[in-house]
Amino acid sequence: MSSEMTLLGQVAISCIGIRKQFVLRHTRSLKEAVVWLVKGRKGDLSKKFLALKDVSLDVKQGETVALLGLNGSGKSTLLKLISGVLQPDGGTVHTRGRVAGLIEVGAGFHHDLSGRDNVYLNGAILGMTEQQIDDKFDSIVEFSEIGEFIDTEVKFYSSGMYLRLAFSIAVHTDPEVFLIDEILAVGDEPFQRKCIAKIKELSDKGKTLFVVSHDLDLVATVCERGVLLEHGEIVMDGEVHDVVKELRRRTATV
Amino acid sequence: MTTQIDQLATPGSGRGLLDVYRDRFLLKLLVRKEIKVRYRGSVLGLLWSYVKPLVQFLIYFVALGIFLNLQRGTPNYAIYLFAGIVLVNFFTESLSNATRSIVDNRDLIRKIYLPRELFPVATVWVSAAHFLPQLVVLVGACLIVGWTPSLLQLAAFFIVFLMVAVLATGLGLLFGAMNVYFRDSENIVDMIVMVVTWASPVLYVWSMVQQVMGPWYWIYQLNPMTVAVEVFHWVFWEPTLKADQSVTGTMPPDLLTLWLPVSVAITLAVLFFGQLTFRRLAVHFAQEL
User: What pTM value is reported for the model?
Assistant: First the structure.
């Protein structure tokens, strides 16, 4: 804990001038590519789309940042660049300590494995060691409220149970930086309150949170700082309530 | 997992196969998952790993051994045949599954950063797990007809098995990465798989090729799978021959002294090239899948 305290104020995520371009490839076969080459590269084989243009952003250790914006503004792309899933086409991304994403919980779940097997598999995917999973297993099961169904194959789980287990694993991975994408709407209301309480507990512990959500009231309670993205550019960066207000103002005029 | 809190790092920059070693716990879980899931809902379960190669063996034995009468010129033809089949099966299963592994795991690769080399490597381990029961059958059959291998032969077995695993990993990395961009890769591999059984002396004897190719026979020997199958014959088949059965020149000349080292070198070159290509292409996996 003390080591985390001394790290407060240090930069946890640093993005400098990042640019990300997507190629919307039309073709998926070698034949079409060869034909295109033979024809003297006429026409465009692909269409390009700039998802992020020159985004610079520093997040300090222990900060809670909400990334706001409309669909297609580049929020998820930025999150994926920070987690390392995508690589930027320009600029640099640096992170300090372990970064774990609560991105699309349950991505690593396998339907034919039991809840128990999935806890181990998903825990390892999110970067936990065998020892860490052993230690936290009971706590993960307890938080998820799965109980006796932990040895049942997850394909028999209700969607709520599935998400609760996945969320529970993710919050137990204990990284320095948490990336959270649209997952706060998990389960029923009591569980949702529990999730938000857990996330607040993490931020009290000095963890860095980076949240993407369309639930503006919710992010305003969890986060302190807001960053507004529009068409791949940062248009506002400040106190979360101000940014939410600005986003509402902008959408109202559209 | 080593994390350096005091240091800024670039996310998503891995060290290739070295990262797989660091994440071996995850590798173990991925392999275990694949083995569990492979035969889910089937009555025979893992028994299929015995049944399928045995049926394949019977087809070849009846068609080639009996109808084409290859068993007359080759004593213990059944052993000869099966030793080659199990090794080639290990290679083809590894390669075709490794080629599909990246595309099959696209849900994970698109969302979470992992050393992507994990997936092809895991498929090779799974194939090794299915190779084991076949090896047991082979050793059992060899022992029945009086197999007494030397220590050198046992050592050669491990070297060749490792070599084939590395070769499948190298080619699996190459075609698995290419498959993300061009799904033609799967079909190319299907073709390789079809050719491999016939391009190595699995069903026939190497000297038949030498008679046809003459001075160009060395080209045939450049294929690491050819050398691997020949060494497997030397390990499993040759010690079962009785004195009156032994045919002169059961093995090609310089097999262990020249061709095995050459094959190991080619295999390592393939692995290096495969890893290099994989790393270059892996940067854009998440957006291309």
Answer: 0.88
